[in-house]
Structure formats: structure tokens, C-alpha cells
Amino acid sequence: MTQWLLPENSEDFISGQAKKIESWRRDLLDLYAENGYQYVMPSMLEYVDSLNAYGKDLDLDTFKVVDQATGKMMGISSDLTTQVSRIDSQMNQNEVNKFCYAGSILRTRPLIQHSRELYQIGAEYFGEESIGADVEVQSLLIKSLKLLNIKNIIIDLNNLDIYKSLIGQLNLSTIDCSTIAEAAMLKDNDAIKESLSSHGNREACNKILSLLEIYGDKSVLTDVVKLFPGDDKIKIIVEKLKIVCSELEKLSVKVSFDFSDIRGYQYHTGLIFSAYSQGFPSLISQGGRYDNINKAFGSIRPATGFSLDLRFIVNNINNIKK
User: Fold this and answer.
1) What is the pTM for the complete model shown?
2) What mean pLDDT comes out for the span 166-176?
């Protein structure tokens, strides 16, 4: 083995690629500043104890090191969103805070076609629970993608509260919840049925299976309402999804709904979204609500945001020109 060999899923960027990423970083941060987002630079290190509060999946994504000064276990940043939320929790909780950021992070389990080292850039909106905050954040994402000259943008929407309302009726174990979530993303109905087979609430189980098969344009929202007859909470959720869809379509993007899209970290709540474009092997961006993410630390705050990996985009941007 040569001493110059990099770890798997790691890479150097030189010349044109590095220059392109830096140019994008500056342009995007200027865009966010124009929209009222303050630039912050979170620490690359967190104690593992604080990371554990955000769920097992984030903990598994995080590289661990021992602090030689204290003997405590530390994590190298694998997601700037949680660190920006920590910054917000230390500020005035009665005000709206908008932050943007850009920096390298490391992940032990990279996504498909992603490096272990990501260059994450994004924006987070704290303190506003109205649907206006969701529309603003998703609109800012669309503007970001267009600034990078990404075309044929598709925004997939979902609201996790629908799925969680059904899962909550079954008293599933953490393992079963994870198994079903992974199977849903793989469209593996057999695995879902097997995980649900031991539970007596057949109505909830059948509704989960039906919900996870709902995908398409805004017309499928009617199917969601039919699945929950007389449920006013579901009707309100669906009406909000319609509003968001209408606002995003004004930006000349395609909007679809995928109720099996329950990807994202365990801290996500409510309305979530993913961005796609022809030529990219997987999603370009994801984001959504993570209200009360720091509840364990005494911070009760609505929040939403998104992030992009500029390394992934620069590696695939030429595909859209073919």
C-alpha cells in the first residue's frame, strides 16, 4: 500500500473543481445574506454526549475521537444543522433567527455517490412556525439550485406527522421503526409486512402500507384524505401541503409528493422535502422541519432549513449537460 492512498470514498479536489466550489460558496452565501441570513461558523468538534440527543442515526454517522485534555469522547461534525441549532439555543429565544453556513463535514456512512467528506452549505430558519417559513426556505433552496445552473428541478414533499401518527398507534420497538423506515425507502413492501405482522392493530398496519404507496402530483393528496376519513388534523396537513405546492410551482419547478420518503435524521418533524434533477444519481438536497430539536436542553423552538453538498454537485454537474 502506498503512503499516498486515500481512505475509501475520499478524494482531493484540484484546479477547476476547487475553484468552482469556492465560487459557488461565495455566490450562495451572498444570496443567503441578501435574504436576511447571518453567516455562522460552527465548531468542528462536539462532545458525544450532546450528539446523542439528536438520534442514533446521527451518532452512527459521526467519527469519534478522544479529547486528550479531558479523556472525553468527541465527535467530528457530520451535520452542521444540529450545530447551528445549538448556536440558536444560546441566543434570544423570543426572536426569529436566520443563519447560513458553509464548511467541511465528515460522515462514516456516505450516501450513494457521495464522499465521506462533504462540503455542506445551507440555511436554517428558527422561531417561526407558520407555513410562510417553510415556503421561504424551500424557495431559497430552489433559488440556490438555479444559481448553480441546475435545471429540471423536482421537489418532493412529505409530512412526517402523517406517517408518525400511524406508527405511534403500534408501540413499535426502535429496531422495528428503523427496519420499516429503511424498507420504505427501498420500496420493500415484503419487509414492511413482515415487521408489521406481529401487531394486532391491522387497520393501522394496512394504512401504513397504503400510505407508503402514495406517490405523484398534487392529485394524490385526495388519496391521503380518503385514507383518513373524518380526520381533521390530516385535512389541515393536506391543505398546507397544497399551499406549499402552489407557491413552489410559481418558481417553475415540478412538485411531487412521496409519502414513502421518510429519509433524513431522526430529529426531523412535520414537513420535509428533497430536491432532485435529471443527471444526478441521487437527491441533490434535503431539508425540512425539526421543531424543538433542543427540547432536551430546554429550548422549545420551531425550525426548518436545508443543506447542499457542493462536492457531490461539482462531481455530477456535467451530467446534466449531456
Assistant:
1) 0.90
2) 79
Q: Nearest-5° angle of CA 93, CA 95, CA 100?
A: 95
pLDDT band at 125 (very low <50, low <70, confident <90, very high): very high
43 contacts 83 by C-beta, under 8 angstroms: yes
CA separation for the pair 215, 69 (Å, rounded): 52
Where is 190: in which H helix or E strand?
A: helix 189-196
User: Residue 285, SS3?
Assistant: strand
Q: What is the average per-residue pLDDT within 170-184?
A: 78
Residue 281 near residue 181 (C-beta atoms within 8 A): no
Is 252 a residue whose pLDDT tops 70? yes
The answer to whether 110 and 289 have CB atoms below 8 angstroms apart is no
Sheet holding 303-309, edge to edge: 38-39, 97-106, 117-126, 303-309, 285-289, 271-277, 153-159, 254-258, 215-216
Q: What is the pLDDT of residue 1?
A: 47
Q: Which helix (H) or strand (E) holds 211?
A: helix 202-211
Structural domains of the chain, ranges and CATH numbers in brackets = 1-151+300-322 (3.30.930.10), 153-277 (3.30.930.10)
What pLDDT score was predicted for residue 173? Answer: 76
Put residue 75 in one of left, alpha, beta given phi > 0 → left and psi -120 to 50 → alpha. beta
